[in-house]
Design brief:
Layout: E1 3-7, H1 12-23, E2 27-32, H2 40-49, E3 54-57, H3 63-72, E4 77-80, H4 87-92, H5 94-115, E5 120-125, H6 149-168, E6 172-177, E7 179-181, H7 200-208, E8 215-218, E9 230-231, E10 233-235, H8 236-251, E11 259-264, E12 270-271, H9 272-283, E13 289-292, H10 307-313, H11 321-334
Parallel strand pairs: 1-2, 1-4, 2-3, 4-5, 5-6, 6-11, 7-10, 8-13
Antiparallel strand pairs: 9-12
Helix pairs in contact: 1-2, 1-8, 3-5, 5-6, 7-11, 9-11
The structure holds uridine-diphosphate-N-acetylglucosamine (UD1).
Cofactor: NAD(+)
Domain NAD(P)-binding: 5-324
Catalytic activity: UDP-alpha-D-glucose = UDP-alpha-D-galactose
Length: 335
Amino acid sequence: MKKILVTGGLGFIGSHTVVELQNSGFDVVIIDDLSNTTIDVLANITDITGKKPDFHKIDLRIKADVKQFFDNNKVDGIIHFAAFKAVGESVEKPLEYYENNIGSLVYLLQEMRDRKLDNFIFSSSCTVYGQADELPITENAPVKQAESTYGNTKQIGEEIIKESCNAYELKAIALRYFNPIGAHDSIKIGELPLGIPQNLIPFVTQTAAGIREQLSVFGDDYPTPDGTAIRDYIHVVDLAKAHIAALKRLLENKNKQNFEFFNVGTGTGSSVLEVINAFKKATGKSLNYKIVGRRAGDITAAYADTTIANKELNWKTEKTLEEALLSAWKWQEKQ
Ligand code: UD1
C-alpha cells in the first residue's frame, strides 16, 4: 500500500483529501500543527473511513522536526496543504507568511531531495492569474504580479518547486484552486472559520444561522450581468478528488513534464447574487443582505477553463453549486 504524507491534513481541504485518499486505498500520515483546526477532525475522519490516519503534530517551520519526521517515516508521495491563507492578514504580516508558506515548503523539498523521495502535490490558487484578460481562464493565461503576500507565496512556491524539479529530478503538480466550498456528505467534516469569516460561503451560512445579522455584498457595479463579482465555486469533495487524480498521475509516471500545473474549478462562474439565490433554492433560506462598496483587491470575475485538467487528470467535478451550498448549510447547522 502506498503511503502518502498530507501536511495540513486536518484543515478544510486537507481533511477531505485524507478521506478520499483512504477511500482510494492509500495509507495516510498527517502532519498538522493545529494552528487553524482542532484535533477532533482526526476522529471525524476516522468515523467516516473506519481507519485512523497516523498523525504527527509538527510545526513545519522547525527544520529539525521535519528532518526527524522523515528519519522515522518513508512516504511515496506528499500532498502539501499546510500554509496560512488569509489574504488581508498576509499583507499585515508578510514575514510570518513567507516564513510559514515558503520556509516549510523549502524544508520539505530538501528532505525529498536528500532522501530521494518523489511525487509532490502543491496547493496553489487561481489568485496567480489576478484578473485574467480572457475568461474562462486556461493554464496558458499569464501569471500576474501578485496583489497580496498570500498570492505571492503561491507564485513563489510554484517557482521554487519548478526549479527544484529541474535541479533534483523531482516530479510535482501544482493545483490552482478556484473557490472551494461545501462539506463532506457525512457532514462530519467541513470548514471551520475562526472569528468573522472573510470568505463568502461561511458568511452566508452564518448569516442564515443568525450568527451574523446581515451579509454585505461587496459591490454591484462590476461589469457583469447583475453587477456582482463572479467566481467559480467548487465542492471541496470534487476538489479533494482532483488531488487523488494528480497523485496517481505522478505515481504512474503519466506526467508530461517534471512540473505541471492545472486549474481546479467547475468551469462555471456564479455571481454573488446567483449564490444567494442558489442558497435559497437549496436550503429554503432567504438571506438578509445589503449591497455595499467593493472590497479592496477583489477582481471582477474568475472561472476556470477545465479542459486541460479534465483531460490530463482524467477528472471532472460531479457536484452542483446547490449541492455544495446545501452541504455547507447542513455543516453550519451542525456547529
Ligand atoms: C479569496 C482570496 C483568494 C483566495 C481565496 C481562498 C481575496 C481578494 N481573494 O478569494 O486569493 O485564494 O479567498 O478561499 O481575498 N463577498 C461578498 N461578501 C462577503 C464575502 C465575499 O460579497 O462577505 C464576495 C467577494 O467580493 C467575492 C466573492 O464574494 O466577489 C467571493 O469572495 P471570497 O469567498 O472571499 O473569495 P475570493 O475573494 O474569490
